[in-house]
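User: Structure with NAP, tokens only please.
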Amino acid sequence: MSTTQAQKIVLAARPLGKPRLADFRLEETTIPAPGPGQVLLRVQYLSLDPYMRGRMDDRESYAPPTPVGGVMPGESVATVIATRHPGYSKGDTVLAGTGWCTHTLSDRGDLRKLDPAVAPVTTGLGVLGMPGFTAYGGLRVIGKPAPGETVVVAAASGPVGSLVGQLAKIAGATAVGIAGGPEKCAFLKDALGFDAAVDHKAVDFAARLKEACPKGIDVYYENVGGAVWQAGLPLLNEFARAPVSGLIAHYNASGLDDSPNLLPATMRAILSKSIMVRGFINYEFDAAHFAPFLREVGAGIADGRIRYREDFVDGLEKAPEAFIGMLEGRNFGKLIVRVDNPLE
Ligand SMILES: NC(=O)c1ccc[n+]([C@@H]2O[C@H](COP(=O)([O-])OP(=O)(O)OC[C@H]3O[C@@H](n4cnc5c(N)ncnc54)[C@H](OP(=O)(O)O)[C@@H]3O)[C@@H](O)[C@H]2O)c1
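Assistant:
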């Protein structure tokens, strides 16, 4: 076993509002040796996801906060480089909750093995992984679009939104995507086949969204909140469904939120139009949905009906900057860190 150093990125301080680079710290450690029942993993690709912002805060949530000084949480595609676990061989490629690091030990028997012959392994972090399952579950279990209905989703060029729109099209619905800037909007229509794309940065965004939804909105897949919810709310049809997947516009809010109070208008619409609003976290969907998800979306990727875009950043040390940028829309597609790691 090499004695060369491993690297990890820890939470240095809890951010107030937008995270800063100083809220993260790169640390070096010795590469550990696996004990009985353990594998040593070398991270190839680290996923950066919006939920990680929530873990940086010490407030009540569906998952405990990362302690100050603790490794930033995250999922990776990793290689087993040493093993004392009977279920894994050296060279296996697995999906694992490694956190932001180059190497880690795992004693879990439930690492998901990835077969590069089936799909590029990075898809396990995006379209064929947690974000993809979020899109699939939220749309199929809660949104339930019918042919001819209108589905609206924001953050639509990312791994969740892009699959929501494409699955809506496959269900025979009209897909309207919301994204930041003309390049992302063009991608939604030209590469992903959305029927319309609306730039939320446009000064007349609400009017453009209304124009793009002449028959109103039947499924509003909520990824963002804030001004996007405000623009979509008056367009919701009777019996509309709103799966609430994420609220990224609010993740950096420091508590002094001066955005308008939409509660009365929201509750009035829910009551008067019999709207169903339901929040969810992807893992609550029945595990029975996961195999059909992999089969269906995997087949769609293989035959070209489902497309995805990945945005790579090189080097673990670049993860904080890339993560901060994602919260402001600087990523274009599923954000992945190619962990620079020549060690074996
Ligand atoms: N419930 C669950 O289990 C679950 C699981 C995974 C993800 N999610 C949620 O799904 C959403 C999308 O996640 P993702 O992984 O696919 O991320 P992503 O789309 O790759 O990245 C986040 C995107 O959010 C958009 N955004 C940021 N601030 C915004 C604002 N104020 N207004 C409008 N758009 C804004 C940006 O895109 P633009 O440049 O287009 O604005 C940014 O690129 C997030 O809210 C996330 O928390 C939920």
